[in-house]
Amino acid sequence: MRQIADLLPNLISDDTLQNQKAAFVAHSMNKGTISPVQTLGQTPAGPMLGGKQSQVCVKTGYINEDEIFVTKVAGGGAEGYGNTGIVLVSSQRSLQPQYVLQDNAILTEIRTAAATALASRYFLPKKVTRIGLFGGGVQAFWQLRFLTLVTDCRDVVLKTRSQSTAEAFL
C-alpha cells in the first residue's frame, strides 16, 4: 500500500497551484457542487467522547460532469490525539468507491497552503523582502513551502507563542 507521505514532496508544485486555481474557477462559475458540511460533536449535537473540543466534519463535492466525486471525513480536537481524516474518491458514473486515502488531514493543510500561495501569486508585490509567519504549527510549515513557488524571498520572521514551538519549527 502506498503511503501518502511518499507523495508529499511532489505535491509542492505548480501543478497543485493550477489544480487549486481550476477548482476556484469552476466554483465561481457554478460548475461545482458542494454539499453543506455535516458536523458531529458541536452544539446542538451531543458531545463526542474525545472531549469538549472534538468534532468530525463530513464534506462532499464534485465538479459537474467530471468523472469523480469526493467525500472527506475529518476529525480533530480529541484530547491526546492529532487531526485525522480520510478521503473517499468515487466514480460519478458507477457511484463505486475508487480510492480511499487516509491522509490524517494533511490534504486539507496542503489545499489551504496552495490557496494562500495562489492568492499570493496575484497579490504580492513584485519584490518581497521578508515573509512573516504567525504561528509555528503545521499550517505555517506548509505555507512556507508553497510560498517558495511564488517568491524568491527566503528571509522569514517567525512569531510563536512559545520558544519551544519556534525551535521545533526550525
Automatic annotation (TrEMBL):
SUPFAM superfamilies: NAD(P)-binding Rossmann-fold domains (SSF51735). One of its GO terms (cellular component) is cytoplasm. It holds the Pfam family OCD_Mu_crystall. InterPro entries: NAD(P)-bd_dom_sf (IPR036291), ODC_Mu_crystall (IPR003462), ODC_N (IPR023401). Gene3D superfamilies: NAD(P)-binding Rossmann-like Domain, ornithine cyclodeaminase, domain 1. Belongs to the ornithine cyclodeaminase/mu-crystallin family. This is Ornithine cyclodeaminase. It comes from Ditylum brightwellii.
